[in-house]
Amino acid sequence: MDTKIWQISSDELNSPGTLDKLEEIKTVLTYGEVIGLPTETVYGLAGDATNPEAIQKIFNAKERPQDNPLIVHIHSIEQLEKFAEIPDERILKLMETFWPGPISFILPLKDNYIAAKTVADLRSVAVRMPSHPVALRILEYTDIPLAAPSANISGKPSPTDYSHVIEDLKGKVYGVIASDSADYGIESTVLDCTTFPYRIARPGEVTKEDLESVIDGQVAVHSGDMEKPVSPGMKYKHYAPRQPLILIEGSVLSQTLTSEKEQNIGVIAPERFRRDIPEDVEFVSLCQKEDDYREAAKNLYGALRKMDKSDVDIIYIYRFRVNPRSEALLNRIYKAAGDVLIKGAHEID
């Protein structure tokens, strides 16, 4: 199939031309097609969460395991209440604080509204309200709850720009919205609210400390991967380029590259390390400074995609220091590396 591209920027949402596109997108989604949707985290592959056929198209296009549940995107609490329970006022307080924004809440599921495939037959559902103006406008205009995992082939780096979606899914989906790139560049925090204390199932921009500033001392962290995941990102290797990815301490970067003579090498690191990189080594800058975790997270998937398309045989990626603000970034790097190998001594704050 030919994949259609709609050009919709955040600053032209109320133009007559955009309204025509919104109406077309509503029709496409109503008839069970799936589209690439911009959000503030990464681009999503969106389809009607109540339509089993649309959900199956998402799984097919992404080549995604069927037991990996999808996050449902909404535009209002009223829409959420059609299919999910809000167990207590503390959760509502968190929603009021952080929505619209990069956090998803796992909630008890009500019967007979969301397709069982959307939640991988679980009795819970992950829900979020995106802050990207285009995504929110589409959700409001269509009034359809949209399941929207990252718009990439499963296991590969997530897309942060519509061109990444085209690279992976052209000809596999009905259309893609060409719009503003993602602000954050990594997927949302996922908070499991089906148990107490609430548990972070996937780290993201909203941290444990952020959450506990609203509901003090009532947030834990999931201990690891699960046989039946309650959230995307818990069970399978993700975000990976085709080449081996090895974490490396900055203190041994130059020494390691000098000793590696037999392979084409790529390095992903903060800009200041560029001076230590030989000319024949492919270098991609993630950020200016080692503690600029937000910028590094925003650029991570783009850097992995660039390396994926290069002729390097092995990729070294800078191992950022461990602290609350780097947790989500390191989570994605570890998932991309799989069985992580770290060269050099640990540097943990």
Overview of the structural elements:
It is a single chain. By secondary structure, the protein is an alpha/beta fold. It folds into 2 domains: about 5-220, DHBP synthase, CATH 3.90.870; about 245-345, Rossmann fold (3-Layer(aba) Sandwich). About 30% of the residues lie in helices and about 20% in strands. Helix 7 (about 210) links the parallel strand 10 and strand 11 (about 220). The chain is globular and about 60 Å long.
Describe what is shown at a glance:
The protein is α/β, with parallel strands linked by helices and 349 residues long.
Overall form:
globular
Q: Summarize the helix and strand pattern as letters.
A: EHEEHEHHEEHEHEEEHEEHEEHEHE
How many strand elements? 16
Give the strand order of the largest sheet, numbering strands 1, 2, ... along the chain: 1-8-2-3-7-4-6-5-9-10-11
Q: Structural class of the helix and strand makeup? A: alpha/beta
Give the overall pLDDT as a whole number. 91
* Number of self-contained structural domains: 2
CATH architecture of the largest domain: Alpha-Beta Complex
CATH topology of the largest domain: DHBP synthase
Q: How much helix is in the residues? A: 25-40%
Give the name of the CATH superfamily of the largest domain: DHBP synthase
Number of helical elements: 10
Please state roughly what percent of the residues sit in beta strands, choosing from under 5%, 5-15%, 15-25%, 25-35%, 35-45% or over 45%.
Answer: 15-25%
Oligomeric state of shown chains = single chain
Q: State the major sheet.
A: 11 strands, mixed
What's the CATH class label of the largest domain? Alpha Beta
Radius of gyration: 20 Å
In terms of per-residue confidence, which ranges show pLDDT below 50 for 5 or more consecutive residues?
Answer: 345-349
| Euclidean distance between termini CA atoms | 51 Å
GO molecular function: ATP binding; double-stranded RNA binding; L-threonylcarbamoyladenylate synthase; tRNA binding
EC number: 2.7.7.87
Organism: Lacicoccus qingdaonensis
Catalytic activity: L-threonine + hydrogencarbonate + ATP = L-threonylcarbamoyladenylate + diphosphate + H2O
